[in-house]
Amino acid sequence: MNEAAPTREEFLSELAHELRNPLASIMSSVELMQTLGQHSEGVPRLLEIVDQKVRTMATVIDHLFVAESESTVVAGDPHENEAPTVVVATLRVLVVDDNATAADSLVQILGLHGYEAAAAYGGMEGFEKMRTFDPQAAILDIGMPDIDGYALARLIHAEDASCALIALTGYGQDRDKARASEAGFQFHLTKPAGIKDIEAILQKIAATLAQKGISHT
């Protein structure tokens, strides 16, 4: 019985990951449509993405899942001890995710919210982009095919320990959060995470830089 427990836990973790990735694309596409407005020329393409991801989720649920018992949990609550002061952020933010749709949508949303953002679509590409873009914060996916987010976090810290690291991933178990912390992530968000949760963390980072007298630009 004890031997079966880890297998079930791993199954649920993988299943949650498979569901959260399309959810992340849906959420980012919807938020982008809300920001751009219903008459934007990009809306039809975003609606196609939402439709595709909904069908993907329906297939996964039909085959593997009957009822999801837990709601999405945001680890390392970005609102904890949040100061009432609003920081006008112009942070440089690097988004690294092999899901190009999710990465590009998030970069566009961040840009519309006043951040200077850039995307990379794999671990090593993200590491090279970090050297040229010089981000103050990096939002990293974990499950990438070349090098995963944990390895990338270690590489970034070895190159520039001042860059704040945010894990944005479909892996949300306690062991995943602990592993992210060990790799050097200061923040952990479980997909799908909305722009409000992401921006709350970025504002914390901006406030910390301001306190240290470091320019955001």
In terms of DSSP E residues, the strand content is 5-15%
Total domains? 2
Distance between the termini: 56 Å
Number of helices: 7
The CATH superfamily of the largest domain is identified as Response regulator
Secondary-structure element order, N to C: HHEHEHEHEHEH
- Rg, rounded, reads 17 Å
> What spatial form do the alpha-carbon principal axes imply?
globular
- CATH topology (fold) name of the largest domain: Rossmann fold
The main pleated sheet reads as: 5 strands, parallel
The name of the CATH architecture of the largest domain is 3-Layer(aba) Sandwich
Specify the helix fraction band: 40-55%
Got a strand count?
5
Structural class designation: alpha/beta
Strand sequence of the main sheet, in spatial order?
2-1-3-4-5
Mean pLDDT: 82
CATH class of the largest domain: Alpha Beta
Explain briefly what this protein structure is:
This protein has helices spanning 4-36, 43-64, 100-112, 123-133, 149-159, 174-183, 195-211; strands at residues 92-96, 116-120, 137-140, 164-169, 187-190. It is α/β, with parallel strands linked by helices and 217 residues long. The chain has a five-stranded parallel beta sheet with strand order 2-1-3-4-5, sandwiched between helices.
Structure commentary:
By secondary structure, the chain is of the alpha/beta class. It has two domains: 4-64, Helix Hairpins (Orthogonal Bundle); 92-211, Response regulator (Rossmann fold), CATH 3.40.50.2300. It is built from seven helices and five strands; from the N terminus they run H-H-E-H-E-H-E-H-E-H-E-H. It has helices at residues 4-36, 43-64, 100-112, 123-133, 149-159, 174-183, 195-211; strands at 92-96, 116-120, 137-140, 164-169, 187-190. A five-stranded parallel β-sheet has the order 2-1-3-4-5, with helices on both faces. Helix 3 links the parallel strand 1 and strand 2. Helix 1 (4-36) runs antiparallel to helix 2. The protein is globular.
